[in-house]
Every structure is written in C-alpha cells, then in structure tokens.
Amino acid sequence: MKTILETRDLRMVYRVGKVDVPALRGVNISVAEGEFVSIMGPSGCGKSTLLHLMGGLLTPTSGDVIIDGENLAKLSDASRTDLRRRKIGFIFQKFNLFPTLTAEGNLKLAEHIAGNGGSSPSPENRAKILGMLRLQEKLHHKPIELSGGEQQRVAIARAVIHHPAIVLADEPTGNLDSQNSEIVLNMLSDLNKQLGQTIIMITHNPEAAAYSQRVIEMRDGHVVHSREMVGK
Q1: Measured by CB atoms within 10 angstroms of the end CB, which terminus of the chain is less buried, N or C?
Q2: Among residues 94, 93, 117, 121, which one has the least CA distance to residue 107?
Q3: CA dist., res. 93 & res. 184, Å (int)
Q4: pLDDT tens, position by position, 180-193
Q5: DSSP 3-state of 161
Q6: DSSP secondary-structure letter at 97?
Q7: How many H helices and E strands in the chain?
Q8: Helix, strand, or coil here: 28?
Q9: CATH of the domain at 72
Q10: Residue closest to 89 by CA, chosen among 191, 216, 3
Q11: Quick one: pLDDT at residue 116?
Q12: Number of domains within the chain
C-alpha cells in the first residue's frame, strides 16, 4: 500500500528564554494512503506539535516530513504553501468558519482556494460529501445560525471538499457534547471508508480513538506504541 505521509527522525526544540525545551525527540511514523490514524498522549507529549509539523505550519529543528512523495524540508515557503492548499485539509477544535459567509459560502471559498492549485472539485464529489455530512438543508445558514455540531460538519466538509491527500484533525470533538461528538466521529469514519480519505486525528479521548484503524501513542516527545484497532 502506498505511503502517503512519513516522518523521519523528526525533532522540534523550542527556545524559552535561555532554555531549550524539546517537544519532539526523533519521531518516525508512516501512514498509508486511506488509513484513519489517531495520535494519543497526555498534554505536553508533543502530539499537537507533530500535527503542525506534518501540516507544514511549523518548521522542524531537524528531520523530514514527506507528504505524497514531497519532502517539506526541501520546498520553498511558497511551494510549501501550495502543497498545503493542494494536499492537506485541516479540521480544528475551534471551527474557524468565516462568520459573514453562509455554510455554502465557506465551502465555495475552500473550493476556490483549492482550485487555484489545480482542478476544482467535481459537482458529483461535492454533492456526495454534502449528502454524507447531511448539510444540504444548512447551506444558506451562517455559522451563528448553526449548532456546534453543524458548524463542525461544515468545517469537515471544507477540509475534504477537494479530496486532499491527507486530512489533519486536531481534537475535532473537543468543543462538542457527547451526542455531537459521536455524529462527527461517525462522519469522519464514513469519509474514510466510503471515499478512502486519509485521516490523522489528534485526540486525548480513547472513545474517539476507537473510531480509527490504528492508534499511535506518544509520551515525552517519543512514539512509544502503535497498535491496530481490532475489527477496523
């Protein structure tokens, strides 16, 4: 199976005053195309730093991040930005929707940005995603008129509307109640199973991680364990 993302001896050290604080201490992971992977660990273990490095939002102190055959360390800032636009979808704990745009406006903006880097999403693909996320009746509502769960579903649609190589989800249910969390996690699972979307999700919640196919556990900037989820 094709490897869609790989990190090689990834290290990140933050400078706090005169003190070096290591966040990652040589992380090596590999994610196959079409996998749904959760990264777990306690606060401060480095999992969010790892996600930001995988998304090209931070530059590592040393090591490599390779996405769909492209090494981020060897790209210019402009090329790295272009790769993010074409190949990475982000889902954050805070929904980060444009408040003045309707749900449809938020999606069209994402389509326009993705289209600048290649072909625009097909109408068929867009309709399938909206149907899976049950958004057809909410397209003309602004974020303030949507529940938290509905806003997160719009954010998910925005992240996958151009079928990126990878979706990076940072605690996507962190601001949701248990019912909406279950809905969102089931939808992420459906996107993975029905569209073959590769998903890497940061979570501290074992119940959320149970929706993925594999769990990577981190401690103190290291990967300490990787296990397949039974029945996934």
Answers
A1: N
A2: 121
A3: 12
A4: 899 889 989 999 99
A5: coil
A6: -
A7: 7, 10
A8: strand
A9: 3.40.50.300
A10: 191
A11: 47
A12: 1
Helices (H), the chain: 47-54, 77-87, 103-115, 123-132, 148-160, 178-195, 206-209
Is the Cα torsion angle 121, 123, 127, 128 positive or negative in sign? negative
pLDDT > 50? residue 127:
yes
Q: In the chain, what percentage of residues exceed pLDDT 70?
A: 94
Q: In which domain, by residue range, is 176 found?
A: 3-228
88 is written with which tokens?
């990475």
The pTM assigned to this predicted structure is 0.90
Of 158, 159, 150, give the one whose Cα is nearest residue 105: 158
Alpha-carbon separation of residue 14 from 49, 80, 185, 222 (angstroms): 10, 21, 33, 16
What's the pLDDT at 11? Answer: 96
Query: Diameter of the chain by CA atoms?
Result: 55
Nearest to 165 by CA among 212, 197, 121: 197
Q: What pLDDT sits at residue 122?
A: 62
Please give the pLDDT value at position 61: 95
Does residue 107 have a pLDDT over 60? yes
Distances (CA, A) of 88 to 30, 43, 91, 110, 115: 16, 24, 10, 12, 13
Phi, psi of 67, rounded to the nearest 5 degrees: -120, 115
Q: Residues 195-207: what's their mean pLDDT?
A: 93
| Sequence-separated (6 or more) residues with CB below 8 Å from residue 145 | none
